[in-house]
Amino acid sequence: MRTALLPLQKAIYDRLKKIYPVYDEVPQGAQFPYITFGADMMHDWSTKLKRGQTIQMDLHLWSQYRGIKEIGQMIDDIVLALDTPLILLNFSVGITNIKLISLLRDPDGITRHGVLEIEANILEV
Of 68, 74, 2, nearest to 36 (Cα)? Predict the structure, then answer.
């Protein structure tokens, strides 16, 4: 069985880079706002006839706008962007859900941090 972790991350990256900078590793001097990839987790749910997996992927949103307005707008933009089905090579994405949204204030008192936990059910084709 192949994992869809990297193909899913690439599909999400390709979709979101059109609206915000997206980083795996944030370059020095990056301008806010931006998105980073966080933790990934995969659960196998294959049967004798089909190979399937559920992937949970965290997206972290970063802003230094005073207040939560910019992070809130980023969340709305991302949810809307991921509403259209994702296309993966060698895999079929059945359902993509936003499982969790968190809004946080970093200890520096300036940076706002949003977390979106995405869950995708995927079949190997």
Answer: 74
Q: Is 78 helix (H, G, I), strand (E, B) or coil?
A: helix
Which residue, 63, 42, 59, is CA-closest to 51? 42
Going from N- to C-terminal start, the domains of the chain cover 5-124
Q: What is the CATH number of domain 5-124?
A: 3.30.2000.30
Q: CB of 80 within 8 A of CB of 72? A: no
pTM higher than 0.85 for the full model?
yes
Name the nearest CA neighbour of 52 among 124, 102, 101, 125. 124
Q: What confidence tens digit (pLDDT) does each residue in 91-114 have?
A: 999 878 899 999 999 999 999 999
Sheet containing strand 34-44, strands side by side: 22-23, 34-44, 52-63, 112-124, 91-105
